[in-house]
Design goal:
Structural class: alpha/beta
Strand order of the largest sheet: 9-8-7-10-11
Helix content: 25-40%
Number of strands: 11
Distance between the termini: 7 Å
Number of helices: 15
Shape: globular
Radius of gyration: 22 Å
Largest sheet: 5 strands, parallel
Strand content: 5-15%
Length: 333
């Protein structure tokens, strides 16, 4: 129900991730090039925004801030939206003020919003109609259309990853099993599979997917029996899907992702087999991936669905951002 001005350095992915935006069908969302945020003529033509959101480590250009100081009768609500983590320090940092100590906005105050998995954090992104759309989804029809030749008892597994250490093991396991089909997303996941296959001799059943928009990516997650996802947003989408999931966390040079992954597994209350799969998949330990048999996946599904229920009981991130800005959450027209 709000008007949003999105400043972004590379909007090219919106053409396939959000085609309705590229087609001009979402007039309430205006997309502007990040470079223009320092252009005086561009800024002069725009109405002042009541809320500023610095997302994921960005810093607003000084020219933008100076223009805001000169044109705002009152300081805007200034939110520093941080990365998602289940680590304990997130709850301690969420909501804290961050005074601006220098520059044109000296004396103004930002406020931290940390997405998270517990009620004392900023919550997770979740549309108000998500559960209704998922309930209306025809899972059987989707599976029949994409994988009509799936063997009896075979499973669909989605793969959206970087270059996980456990990928060769997974491909070998699926090859030996012979019934499951791997659905591989484009980009780094597809390249990683193509590099790993020659060493196997034989290949599992697999299918390369095209780039797709956000809604169809959700459909993929809803339809599959196991979702191997990467990054933060796709982890949340896989959680809402309620199917067994494995997270390929973005690797960091200082190994900070190890603690972040373990914190998520603790919140998830992951069974031993799911923890072992994550640790081998992400290269935290060297060992064998647990077998993806029916009892194991049933155990993982029960774990994910219980965690989803806990997350659904909490206020979502968008609602909390609006509350932090003193705005009400209204249904979209």
């Amino acid at each position: 129900g709000q008007r949003v001005r999105l400043w972004v350095d590379d909007a090219s992915a919106l053409a396939w991730m959000a085609p309705e935006q590229a087609q001009g069908l979402t007039p309430e969302i205006e997309v502007l090039a990040w470079a223009r945020a320092s252009d005086a003529a561009t800024l002069a033509a725009l109405a002042p925004a009541a809320v500023w959101v610095e997302a994921f480590g960005c810093e607003l250009p000084e020219a933008f801030v100076a223009h805001g100081v000169a044109t705002h009768a009152q300081p805007p609500t200034w939110i520093n939206l941080e990365y998602l983590s289940a680590e304990a320090w997130v709850a301690r940092m969420h909501g804290l003020p961050s005074p601006v100590l220098s520059g044109p906005a000296q004396g103004w105050v930002k406020r931290f919003v940390y997405p998270g998995f517990t009620p004392d954090t900023g919550g997770l992104l979740r549309e108000s109609d998500l559960q209704a759309r998922q309930a209306q989804f025809d899972r059987a029809a989707w599976r029949q259309q994409l994988a009509p030749a799936l063997a009896e008892g075979g499973r669909l597994i989605s793969l959206f990853c970087y270059e996980p250490a456990g990928l060769p093991q997974l491909l070998a396991q699926l090859t030996a099993q012979g019934r499951d089909q791997l659905l591989v997303t484009p980009g780094r996941a597809l390249a990683a599979v193509q590099r790993a296959l020659p060493a196997l001799g034989q290949a599992p059943q697999w299918h390369a997917l095209p780039y797709t928009d956000q809604n169809r990516f959700d459909h993929l997650l809803w339809a599959c029996d196991l979702n191997l996802v990467r990054g933060e947003d796709s982890l949340v989408r896989a959680l809402w899907a309620g199917q067994p999931l494995v997270w390929h966390i973005y690797p960091q040079d200082d190994q900070a992702h190890h603690a972040k992954l373990e914190a998520f597994l603790d919140w998830l209350q992951a069974p031993v087999s799911l923890r072992q799969f994550h640790r081998v998949w992400n290269g935290l330990v060297v060992g064998a991936l647990p077998a993806l048999d029916a009892p194991t996946l049933a155990d993982w599904a029960a774990c994910v669905q219980a965690a989803r229920a806990r997350a659904l009981a909490q206020a979502d991130l968008c609602t909390q951002l609006l509350a932090a800005a003193g705005l009400s959450c209204r249904p979209a027209p």
